[in-house]
Write a structure and sequence with these properties.
The structure is a homodimer. Chain A is an alpha/beta fold. Chain A contains 13 helices and twelve strands. In chain A, helix 1 crosses helix 2. Chain A binds a DNA duplex through helix 2 and helix 4.
Chain lengths: 341, 341
DNA sequence: ATGAAAGCGCTAACAT
DNA sequence: ATGTTAGCGCTTTCAT
């Protein structure tokens, strides 16, 4: 049978209330009693019963603050679905979600969102927004105040967050390289649309791609790396120019960037369907591109799983004190073709 | 605030005990009281609180019986991991797992396993074994006795099971076709190793593959379909013979069958790495084949997710009475290349 | 046939 | 500083 606080209390010769105080770090316990209880907890391998906790939390559920981009960012739709699924499963487990939608281009806004959550008394935070020094500082403060933080989809590095749930970006780049190598003849010219080097995701994917190519002795020729291609116009202009400069181009890897712009540039140059395209994620325009046989492969990062797992990991942390299995929890990276839809 | 049995009881002018009896279909409630309670339950949109239920079930947890192949079948390792993960999350939710490992070639043994679980009083069953008339009959009996059954990984069709959690086999075949089409030149000769037509998985995958090819106007020539290739010897002999008969063969799709045998046959014929191979799943020999660049692509069905979701769906069914979202719950079908490992 | 009440493990308000 | 106790929602035993 499982160990309960009652048994701990008996063995320690104190009341259940005291054990509860010790376990939840509340003030008002003599240090020696505290230590005795803790050692017994350790010795008996006590793990709290979640049903019991959940029931006790019914009146005032623990609040999980979630910082993420606003609802019109479609990429986050699937992530939100994953969060909803986990939330539905945890509906009676004593937690309540509080969303903070922030524009992820503004560092202060992001840090401010975390600050507000902390001040409003949340007991756990899920964060998917900008990686910035102000944000890092706020996350560290939250953790110091005993509020666990889990980042998802895009990480905040070098801070005290418990873990990150998201994609292995480097692997994503390597996979793209592997695909290109398989579908193009040796020596073919390709271009890489890096996107914006300020973003870790763009950089690391490109690195994974170029490293893999190098490791294979460069079976393909990376004839152009297009940077600063974030918005439609940038991307269109750059891709259009590249297509004109490099008439023999046979493939494009979009580490990210505006896919619609790339497709439009291809179409305008009469190259749609002729140049092999590998990109990331599964937005509506990418599904269309796959169906139209303009995009050959897209590499997906299981966003629903990212939402689902991050909430579960945080719940475990908050209610069981269970540390995540790893600091970086990667969701499966898989390859989609039109037939996958 | 949530509706509780207490509120139902008040509104119906009965005691909580009576409401409980009605909700759990226990005998000893006058029909008119019963109806009144039920209509109020309906009207107030009552959903049981899982923490409350879980706590009440602590003393004698509900037993989930799991019928699956024995532990030495490595393919099920990942599925077992998924089940374990779900079980860990549900550890305090009032259930206990009871495994029944059966040889999935023997219909009576499989049916018998289900029978024993039912007789031993389990309250839910997870089944992943043979699809057979005896099994179907036993599953129907279980369901008639109020014990929900969920099949996973391989379905049992035309029976009263609540749902199936597993792969979309037809899509898996189409994806294989899509890959072959992309990596081979038009008109190339390929072979399909069907495996054993007795198994639905083998048949349906092959059908998905050939249907897709047909729909595209047969860009590749299916020069040979190898049946009855279950064990090493069969597969080796057939593939070896095919390689000798068709010297121009450029690709092989293994809907299933013994991959090691296929690789050995390729090696002995000096064709390893020259003929493009697409297969299924991620067994150790397939990982090796990918790394050695003998296998080009493998199509994976997310077995861990199958284990995880099937247990969660069954739990919802048992404790919330929540019907699954669909009768067929498909886990993601994704494509792996060596870089995916 | 139905009501009353104890108990599942934990928390928190109240006592001491 | 520590003990006591009343719930949290549901099941189940014991009365009636």
């Amino acid at each position: 049978m499982k160990v309960t606080i009652r048994q701990i209390a008996e063995k320690a010769g104190v009341s259940r209330g005291t054990v509860d105080r010790v376990l939840n770090g509340r003030y008002g316990v003599k240090p020696d009693v505290r230590d005795r209880v803790l050692s017994i907890v350790e010795e008996m391998n006590y793990v709290p019963n979640l049903a019991g906790k959940a029931l006790a939390y019914q009146k005032k559920p623990a609040v999980v603050g979630i910082v993420m981009p606003p609802e019109h960012i479609r990429f986050f739709d699937q992530i939100r679905e994953g969060i909803s699924l986990a939330a539905a499963e945890l509906k009676d487990m004593g937690l309540r979600l509080e969303f903070q939608y922030v524009d992820s281009t503004q560092p202060e806004k992001c840090a401010q969102a975390v600050r507000e959550l902390v001040n409003s008394g949340v007991q756990g935070i899920l964060y998917a927004s900008l990686d910035d020094s102000q944000v890092r500082a706020m996350i560290d403060e939250a953790v110091d105040r005993g509020i666990p933080v889990v980042t998802f989809n895009s990480d905040v590095e070098d801070c005290k967050r418990a873990c990150f749930v998201g994609q292995d970006l480097y692997k994503s780049g390597s996979i793209a390289a592997g695909l290109m190598k398989r579908i193009l003849p040796r020596g073919a010219q390709i271009a890489v649309v890096l996107g914006n080097p300020k973003f870790q995701a763009h950089r690391v994917r490109t690195l994974g791609f170029t490293d893999a190519m190098k490791a294979w002795g460069n079976p393909l020729e990376i004839a152009s790396v297009i940077e600063i291609a974030d918005r439609y116009e940038d991307t269109f202009t750059h891709v259009d120019e590249t297509l004109k400069t490099l008439p023999d181009l046979e493939g494009i890897y979009l580490a990210t960037g505006d896919i619609a712009a790339c497709i439009d540039a291809l179409r305008l140059n009469g190259k749609a369907g002729q140049i092999r395209i590998v990109c990331n994620d599964l937005l509506p325009e990418i599904e269309q591109g796959l169906k139209d046989n303009i995009i050959d492969f897209t590499i997906v990062q299981n966003p629903e799983q990212q939402g689902y797992r991050s909430l579960r990991v945080l719940y475990d942390l908050m209610f069981s004190g269970k540390q995540p299995d790893a600091e970086l929890i990667y969701t499966a990276t898989s390859i989609y073709i039109p037939e996958s839809l």
